[in-house]
Amino acid sequence: MQAYSENARNRIFDSILTEALKESYRREVALYKDSDEHTFSEEFEKNIRSISKQIRLKQNIEKFKKSTPKIATTAAALIIIFTLAANPVVHAFFKNIIVRLSDGFNRHEFIDDIIITIENFNQELRPAYLPEGYQISLALYSPTSMIIDYINQRENIEDDTTITLEYRIADASVISTEIENSEKYHVFINGRDAVFYESTTEDRTGYLIWNSGGYAFVLIAQIEMREFVKIAESINIS
Amino acid sequence: MLCFYLSMIETQEDTDKFTEIYNKYKNMMHNVAFKVLNNTQDAEDAVHEAFLKLARNIPKVESISCKKTETFLVILCRSASIDIYRKNKKERNKADIGEDNDMGSIKAAPALDTLGELISTEGYNRLIELIYELGDTYRDTIALRFILEWSNNEIADFLGINKNTVEVRINRGRAKLIEMLGKEEEYASIQRKRSK
After folding, report:
1. Per-residue pLDDT reduced to its tens digit, A103-126
2. N or C, fewer C-beta in 10 Å, chain A?
3. CA distance A221 to chain B (A)
4. Which of residues 59-88 of B touch A (CB under 8 A)?
5. Residues of chain A with C-beta less than 8 angstroms from the C-beta of B67
6. Contact by Cβ (8 Å): A196, A187
7. ipTM
8. Domain C-terminal end among B49, B73, B91
9. Rounded CA gap, A76 and A92, in Å?
10. pTM to 2 decimals?
11. pLDDT tens by residue, B125-179
């Protein structure tokens, strides 16, 4: 073989290595595919359905973000709906529908003196406090809502959980929580009422739901309740 | 388990992709997890974690039935399984020890004789065997770069590790392979001389 430069030798090696890697995974996949079939537990199947719902949510937000030209039409429709809903009879009618639809769920509707619109929706709201090691890993936004994920970057794997903060315009929001094996607590966030749900299953996932400054907030994590409150109270809305 | 969702317009595109992957590969993924954890319950937990991670990375999956996707799913599931293994053992995997030293910053170049050997069928097959010997931590990181062509940032984000650790794993993994191949070539060369 003639004398190749170091760069050339590296390129040739990487090219052969890539093909060899592909072959190694092809063999490995074949091995796993040929193994015995496993019957998954009901709990597992249920959890997967729950993930599907969450993908749908995030996908919808992304699509909504891309459909900016439709926002004006949507906003106009919302104005008409809320104008109609201001009429007590129409409001009662809508409320009745919501209650009927809400069997099996806890639904949270938000009433706030401060009105946030698409024009003045603040996408920059962030907690000033987070437990040690958490850093932002994902942010999804639409004109009316934000979802932010914080992941624990510390070496200690035991603390490797995600904190998800979601907030949206309170006036147009109904947040549904499907509660199963959970306990409900009433807490205060900067003097305002809030609801905290904590799963009684092993994962101990908690949900804190509250509204403030015209926004409805949901905080999801596997941390202590007092940490939820600390994070929530550190969000400066003014 | 407690779950929540908001009432919004429903679309099917990514849900369908997710469901199809789930139906087609859940068994394969369980086998990947079981090999690491050797326990059915833990393996199911790992597959569940893997699907949660898949949900975040679903736009990266272009085609459901291709080698790249299968490789990605194996790495995804193995990564989730190793996390659970570490949680259970409450200690770091030995493969990660010492990743912060300087060795990984050097990109090793193979000798000409080593390259010549790799061109042969025997040498190529030996390289595949050595890739397995390298260990999953290095192999998966290198595969994410070389097969899936992800950037260091993407790999770091996906594996939940530092960007520098990605570079270290790739360079060190490559260097180890070159070293192993070099030693074998040296040994073979001595044997050839002796037989003359």
Report:
1. 434 556 666 667 787 778 888 899
2. C
3. 11
4. 67, 70-71, 74, 83, 86-87
5. 22, 25-26, 29
6. yes
7. 0.76
8. B91
9. 22
10. 0.50
11. 888 999 999 888 899 999 999 988 889 998 998 888 888 899 999 999 999 998 8
Range(s) of the domain holding residue B42: 14-91
Residue B89: pLDDT band with limits 50, 70, 90? confident
Domain assignment present for B6: no
| Binary contact (A177, B139; C-beta < 8 A) | no
Domain count, chain B: 2
Residue B4: list chain A partners with CB under 8 A. 175-178, 207, 218, 220
Tell me the per-residue pLDDT of A139-177, one tens digit each, with 9 for 90 and over: 776 777 788 888 887 755 555 578 889 888 876 566 656
Helix (H, G, I), strand (E, B) or coil at B32: helix
Give residue B8's Cα distance to chain centre.
36
Q: Clarify whether residues A92 and A175 are in a common domain.
A: yes
Looking at the fold, whether A49 and A29 belong to one and the same domain comes out as: no
Domain, as residue range, for A94: 45-233
Q: What is the CATH number of the domain that holds B185?
A: 1.10.10.10
Whether A11 and A77 map to the same domain: the answer is no
Residues B144, B106 share a domain: yes
Residue of A nearest to B86 (CA): A157
Pair (A51, A33) in one structural domain: no
For residue B43, report the phi and psi dihedrals to the nearest 5 degrees.
-65, -40
**Nearest residue on chain B to A45, judged by CA atoms?**
B48
- Count other Cβ atoms within 10 Å, centred on residue A183: 11
| Structure confidence at residue B141 (pLDDT) | 94
A120 with A185, same domain: the answer is yes
Residue type, B3: C
Checking A142-150 for CB contacts under 8 A at 24+ apart, the result is: A142/A61, A142/A64, A142/A65, A143/A64, A143/A65, A143/A68, A143/A71, A143/A118, A144/A118, A144/A168, A144/A169, A144/A172, A145/A61, A145/A169, A145/B6, A147/A58, A147/A61
The closest CB to that of A40, out of B10, B26, B178, belongs to B26
Same domain, A54 and A163: yes
Which of left, alpha, beta for A134 (phi over 0: left; psi -120 to 50: alpha)?
beta
Residue numbers of chain A with a pLDDT score lower than 70: 1-4, 49-113, 141, 155-160, 171-180
**How many separate domains does chain A show?**
2
| Contact call for residues B180 and A17 (beta carbons, < 8 A) | no
Q: Are strands A174-178 and A106-109 parallel, antiparallel or unpaired?
A: antiparallel
Check whether residue A223 and residue A130 sit in a common domain.
yes
B52 falls within a domain: yes
Please check whether residues A98 and A83 belong to one and the same domain: yes
